[in-house]
Structure formats: C-alpha cells, structure tokens
Design a protein that fits this description.
40% helix, alpha/beta
Length: 208
C-alpha cells in the first residue's frame, strides 16, 4: 500500500495500523483481545517465568513435533524454537488470521508452521503436515469461557493426537479447566506461577 492509498483508508484502519507500529506485538495482542476476548483470554502476554515453568517438563531431545494452540503474537514461539532440535517442527494453530499473519511475517525459522484454523481440527492439521502424532501440545486457550462443546472437542482431539508419553501443557488463570482435563488425562501435574498478569495456573496432562 502506498502513501496515497494509506491516506484514503478508513479511519479505523489507519488508527489500527498506527497502533500496531507504535506498540508492536503488544498492540497486536491487545487488538486480538478486544476483537475476541473469549478466544484470547488475557489482555497481556505471559511472563518469562511462566514460559520457563510451562516448558520445564518437555523432553526436547525426543520432540519431533511441538504444537501450540492460540499462539497470539508468539510469546512462546521463540522460546520453543530455541529449545527444539534443528530437525524438529513447531506447528501453531490460531483462529485469528491477524495473529497468523503477524507470526508468518515475523518468524523466519524454517521449523515454524503457522495455521489459521481450529484446535479441534488438530488431528487433520497434523496429518496435513506429514505427521501422525504430536509429542507435546501447548495451550493458553480459556477453556472455561469457550463456546459450549468446543472445550471437550479440543481436549478429546488433543488426547488422540498425542503420542504415548506425550503431554498437554495448559496454562490458565483459574484451576477450573483441570476438571475438564481430568476426563481425558488421568495423570496431571500441577503448577502455579504468581509472577504473571494475572497469576497463572499450570497443568501438565500426560498421555500414559
């Protein structure tokens, strides 16, 4: 878009672009929250301490495919890529096309795959990219506020797509999602990170 076209764009589009330039990832994240708070679930990205704690139980040496639901502006993406083997892959799935476009623009790692779609379709998405299972799945989706039936569909599909010994890494702001998680994952490790806005409840559901 040239300067003349930019000047003719509707006011809300010009304001949005200016905010994205001024605030970078935070502006895009805030825009996503305002656009669909039910799916984003938080107004600011997770803290560094939360990232470290959530990822602390991953066996990176034996990880071929790591999947993330709702990556937003990529708060976890680079930390995951920093830990992944050179021949492994990170596949992220988000229903928000703005987030997917932003991540595709800003992450140049050949191991990174960004898909605009639903986490409930994870099995088909994984197969489309040449895998028959995931080793780990990460999610910050707000399960307690998702539309009816969506949370159970995502949990069930996640359990099916994981390899035995793999885990579903879930970070939330209440412990309510654990009740749903326990229907599918019988072994759940529990954690908590107070240095986060808001403080974060962490669950690692293992597929035995």
């Amino acid at each position: 878009m040239n300067s003349t076209q930019a000047a003719r764009a509707p006011l809300h589009q010009r304001v949005r672009r200016k905010a994205e330039r001024m605030f970078g990832p935070a502006g895009i994240f805030f825009k996503g929250f305002v656009k669909n708070p039910v799916m984003v679930g938080a107004i600011v990205p997770s803290s560094r301490r939360t990232i470290e704690k959530v990822l602390s139980k991953v066996d990176w040496e034996h990880t071929d495919l790591f999947v993330e639901y709702g990556p937003g502006v990529g708060t976890f993406c680079q930390p995951v890529l920093d830990r992944l083997r050179r021949d492994a892959r990170l596949l992220v799935i988000d229903t928000n096309p703005d987030f997917i476009a932003y991540l595709s623009r800003t992450i140049g790692d050949s191991r990174f795959i960004a898909v605009n779609g639903s986490a409930a379709d994870v099995e088909a998405i994984v197969r489309e990219h040449g895998y028959d299972h995931a080793d780990y799945v990460l999610s910050g989706l707000p399960f307690s506020t998702l539309p009816e039936g969506v949370g159970p569909a995502i949990m069930a599909a996640t359990h099916r797509v994981l390899r035995p010994g793999g885990a579903f890494l879930v970070y939330q702001y209440t412990a309510r999602a654990r009740a749903l998680m326990s229907r599918y994952f019988h072994r759940i490790d529990k954690g908590f990170e107070p240095v986060n806005v808001p403080p974060c409840v962490i669950s690692w559901g293992w597929k035995d």
